[in-house]
Amino acid sequence: MNDTTAMPVTGAIPGLRFIRQDIQSMHAYAIQDSAGMVKLDAMENPYTLPSELQAALGVRLGAVAINRYPGSRIEELKGALARYVDLPAGCALMLGNGSDELISLLAMACDVPGASILAPLPGFVMYAMSAQLQGLAFHGVPLTADFELDESAMLAAMREHRPAITYLAYPNNPTANLWDAAVIRRLIAEAATYGGLVVMDEAYQPFSSRSWLDEMRADPAANAHVLLMRTLSKFGLAGVRLGYMLGAQALLNEVDKLRPPYNVSVLNAECALFALEHADVFAQQAAQIGEQRSILIDALGRMPGVTPFPSEANMVLVRVPDAQRCFDGLKARGVLVKNVSKMHPLLGHCLRLTVGTPAENIQLISALRAAL
Fold it and tell me: Cβ–Cβ contacts within 10 Å for residue 144, how many?
């Protein structure tokens, strides 16, 4: 009897034998229970659609042919997004079931012998997870103490490992800052020397003062190997699960071959089209979040022992005397945030706070004062 047909070990859980050991040792992505809480842990847009738009969207969704596979409406959504971002000449755009799927597809596309993925740390956890799940090496390069890119360390790591993909989140999660554009240009130039890709992850673009898309327009030759990724989650459609990526058409064509057929549902596509038709509403919401971010940072800065960091996103990283105590105190008072203090040594004593509505932010500030 060969190995693949051997009897299962007595006492083993049926079906686990062929599941990779590294996966069995992993922890699933944790989502906190937010029932009855002021939910400020996941960087969601806190504003709902106005009631008249809710009604109009309901009519639109009710007319969708859900008995059919997604068809030409998906291409119409791609066209709408291309117009929304003013897609540069020579570039193409592809859709994903959130940015997470695009990150997975990129790892799959670049899975050649010896390939690896590199990103600054702390950063978005899915970069490392996508590498592990695809069997690629992941190289994390610590940021500086003030959460800036360590240029010399990044360049050294790129020269040593020659990563297939270098991820640069712009702004970064969870630190919420934009990195020095001159440093990023030099990292992009380094990747070009050995044929690597650079992915600019702009998940928080609606709240940022800058976009790398402007660099791609201004110097397309220097950014020919750069892919730019965004999501509609922070735009205001976190429940819709829609991400998109743009870059040189020749590159996108290859990655798009790996996309599962019908990966975006007709309901998701219709929601996204509707949102883009009312982009001004979401732009107003983003502006309100930006105003509230300033108010929140100012209030946090007035609290003894509390250090808020600059933010270009819809979240604020804050260092407190005791992160676990503050997290527990906030939760006991009905406010849910993210305790990131154990994610990376640079994040010691830190919490990540989503910017909420004015009422939610008042409650957060009051609860944090009490928890301190």
Answer: 12
Contacts of 79 (CB under 8 A, 6+ apart): none
Instruction: Give domain 66-277's CATH number out of 3.40.50.1000, 3.40.640.10, 3.40.50.2300, 3.60.15.10.
Output: 3.40.640.10
In CATH terms, the fold of domain 21-48+280-371 is: Aspartate Aminotransferase, domain 1 (3.90.1150)
Q: Which of 92, 109, 31 is nearest to 250 (CA)?
A: 92
**Mean of all residue pLDDT scores within the chain:** 93
* pLDDT tens, residue by residue, 15-62: 888 888 888 887 777 777 778 889 999 999 999 999 999 999 999 999
Six token digits for residue 243: 């991400």
* Model pLDDT, residue 11: 57
CA-based nearest residue to 208, from 325, 312, 99, 59: 312
Can you read off the two tokens belonging to residue 255? 């990655």
